[in-house]
Amino acid sequence: MPALAIRLRGVVKRYGAVTAVDGLDLDLPEGTCVGLLGPNGAGKSTTMKLLTAQAIADAGELEVLGHTLPGDSKAARAVMGVVPQLDNLDTTLTVEQNLLVFTYLYRVPRAQRHDAIERALTIANLSDRRKARVDQLSGGMRRRLLIARALVHEPRLVLLDEPTVGLDPQVRQELWALIDRLRSEGVSILMSTHYIEEAERLADTVTVMSHGQAVAVGRPSDLVAEHAGREALEVYGAPSRLREVEDEARERGWPTRRTGTSVTILRVDGLNGDLPEGERRMATLEDVFVLLTGEEIA
Amino acid sequence: MIESEPRVRRLDRAALTGVLVREVVNFGSFWRSSTFSSTVEPTIYLLAFGFGFGSLVSKVNGLDYVQFVGTGTVATAVLFSSVFPGMFSTFVKYQFQHTYDAILAAPVDTEELVTGEALWIAARAGTYGCVPMLVAIAFGLNPSWGMFAVPLIAFISGFGWACFGITVAAVMKSIDNFSYVTSTVITPLFLVAGTFFPISGLPQWARIAANVNPLYHCVQLVRHAVFGFHVEDLWHLAFIVAFGLLLWRVAIARMERRLVD
Questions:
Q1: What DSSP designation does A94 have?
Q2: In this structure, is the dihedral angle defined by the CA atoms of residues A119, A122, A126 and A131, taken in order, positive or negative?
Q3: In terms of Cα–Cα distance, which of A116, A71, A76, A68 is closest to B5?
């Protein structure tokens, strides 16, 4: 079995009456990318904070690259890189200065500092913007710099908290390519996201979180097969028609989910004939996501 | 496989250096405005009080009023250039810019973060604190060897006030609440410290209160550094050192509570 870059067992984190993380188990084998998939409020960001000891767990075991948290968290933080959800670059500094500061914070030896900055500039594809102030960069460039900043010390593990939230599709693809390159270089990655496609494309395994717990773990394709079957049927219609379809499905014991404009009947692979009119399509990770994390928005 | 990982311990130099380098590099982008306000403000006080008030009062405690107020304003310059950055930049950095999230995700603990920030503010206060003295020299204050002790006094004092400011930032929920602290704590401390008028003329309760005012001890030390040290300066020094150490630990504890859930 490969060594684990992250190992969580029964981790609990409460904020007053709210239990943000509720007995979470999580394994991240070294050199793989694990996607933490869940709706807002599922406990993804709290999990990220626990891993850098910016939140202290109330119960459970946490190990990062062999270091036990929170006691050895500083040693763990020295060998991991963190890309936060909120941009916290120093906006009045240049691209290069931001990277320079982080070579100090991450203790890059003096002799390697210059190379580390050059490498990070290359990763972020910002070599020709090195002298630009951060507040003159586009949103996509800032994100790339934010990721490159977490890589100046060549960490073995990278935490990405919602790396592409709020970005347009072109920029998102660019970042996916960047993350995919990291993965191919053998860096272990934990990535939280609520974009299904992001998890599907980048993650070797996905942990679906809901209400602070891992409700499903597995490869994206396995999760789809296990929880949503192979094919799904989309039935469109007026709201009254959709309610009828749902009632019928419930009577017949067919699993369904709402998609807003349609009702999706899942696991229709074996079913024939008496199904309502609709469009057949392949089941997706999104079907699993909605099925497992609940349809109602809390 | 044995890997060499960076050594980590409490208050280690690499972490403090990281925090300080960040500040120094950032200072490069705003030193002009910061230096301008830290220099011009005490100079205005000095000129306004020195000449405005000085025309009514010629001598205070045997000193020309300009000399009295010139040395007193050093302490106010130290106070302003340490307590306000401590309050405002700390709050802005953790609440609005999320800078501290980034720093604490690196191998830096809250203790090192607070210590590094306070040391940097103290170093600035040690420098800016000397400005009124230099201005006073231009207006007739005689230079003396003891003046070389002033940056150190200003540094120690500034460290305590920086930690006080950081504590305020850590405790307050909103930046708007800072005005309560400014009006009820900082303004009285700044006036009842023997900066613009000697505390000997105040009612007894105010004289006693002044003795627990760290700024008063700073004022006394600066004045004695310039005009000649006394034995009691050891007490003044002990007071500002103790103030600095106490507030340093308080600032760390409050910031930890604020930054680590």
A1: B
A2: positive
A3: A76
Mean pLDDT of A101-115: 96
CA distance B261 to B254: 12
What confidence score (pLDDT) does residue B58 get? 79
Of A92, A97, A107, the CB nearest to B107: A107
Backbone φ and ψ of B203, nearest 5°: -60, 160
User: Pairing relation of β-strands A59-64 and A67-69?
Assistant: antiparallel
Helix (H) or strand (E) holding A68: strand A67-69
Interchain contact, B6 vs A15, CB within 8 Å: no
Domain borders along chain A are 89-153, 230-282
ipTM: 0.88
Q: Are B69 and B50 in contact (CB under 8 A)?
A: yes
In angstroms, the separation between the Cα of residue A171 and the nearest Cα of chain B is 23
Note every long-range contact of B98-103, with CB atoms under 8 Å and residues 24 or more positions apart, other chains counting.
B98/A84, B98/A86, B98/A88, B99/A88, B99/A90, B100/B259, B101/A54, B101/A84, B101/A86, B101/A88, B102/A82, B102/A84, B102/A88, B103/A105, B103/B18, B103/B19, B103/B22
Inform me whether the pLDDT recorded for A298 exceeds 50: no
- What is residue A293's predicted lDDT score, i.e. its pLDDT? 83
In sequence order, the β-bridge partners of residue A160 are A83, A191
Mean pLDDT, rounded, for A2-25: 93
Q: What is the pLDDT of residue A24?
A: 94
pLDDT at residue B3 in the model: 45
Chain B: residue whose CA lies nearest to A73: B107
- The residue ranking higher by pLDDT, B246 or A2, is B246
